[in-house]
Amino acid sequence: MRVLGLMSGTSADGIDAVLARFGGRPERPAWQLLHSVSLPYPAGLRDQLLAVGQGQPTPAAALLELAEALTEAQAEAARACDPGGQAELVGCHGQTLWHRPPQAGRRGASWQLLQGPLLAELLATPVVFDFRAQDLALGGQGAPLVPAADGALLPAIGGWRALLNLGGIANLTLLPPRSGPQRLSPIQGWDCGPANSLLDLAVSQFSDGRLSFDANGAWASQGLINEALVDQWLQEPYLQQAPPKSTGRELFGSLDLARRLQALEQAAHARGESLKPADALASLTAFTAAAVAQDLHRGPMPLELLVAGGGARNHLLMTELRRRCRGMAVRPLAELGIGDCEREALAFALLAWWHRLGHAGSLPSVTGARQAAVLGVCTRPRRGGAGFRHAAD
Fold first, then answer.
1. In terms of domains, do 119 and 217 share one?
2. Would you state the pLDDT for residue 11?
């Protein structure tokens, strides 16, 4: 079956789309990546999404219009990726506006903005969406959901294999080895902490809005890292918390950035200096790498760390990962044929296919839910679509 996957992560910089073919056993499918595109959000739409995601009060009418604009942008990305309309099914994550992990005595909740029925009508194709709700209802974190797909799509190796996505938030997957006493261990996965969320906000602030990200980490590469502050930040409660755990801009957003920049400014003033933007960016970049390394050194040591997401193109961040993740090979996931911006969209295409088959897409070992579940809600077009088309492949 040909399935289109659509993903927009915490960075809210745009939509990644893939068209993939799946067949065979759901737990270990034969798959082929047919096409992919990345489409940036229009600047005004991105600004609105970031503002709402940071808690800016917004009238209900504006939220409604934002949901429509977001859905139309998803449809545009789908058409760009699949201009011939080959997809028989679409899996769309939507745009996370707010994520509340489970707390003592209170279940978690998560809001992915999307008008699923509208998207199905625009594409004349069934759409699976709202992937997190069932896991949350079962007491899980609702995130991360990609580790299950990692385990199905990537082969095991002779030791533990780690996958890192560097989007707005850094999240990890640990895949058990193919042989030996740990081969039957469950897949692990969790959100480590910030990746590009703090960096992008800092770049926008330091450039007075002219830049939205540090291309290739070039600006941060000119600065000096405040290792003492990085070590201090690593002791914060979330970074010391054991999995399962998930997070987002609610914790690592604009207020958190202001707190960290204040600490960096105080440290610079104590040396009789003013804070240089490059030093702040270098320290924030190192903080992301240090949080990942700290998590990896607590568990089974992977033989390799495969890196995807926009942060994989940040040279300083990759350098810091290699420096801090001692004992493992650090390389791009793209070397295995899955590009930086393809992994998560491919995962949601697979989750949609699993929904079609009635195959569970969640991992209690990752999310902490009471049991595994089929994820997502499917909506079918009421006009112009023929429902599910069964393909020979």
1. no
2. 87
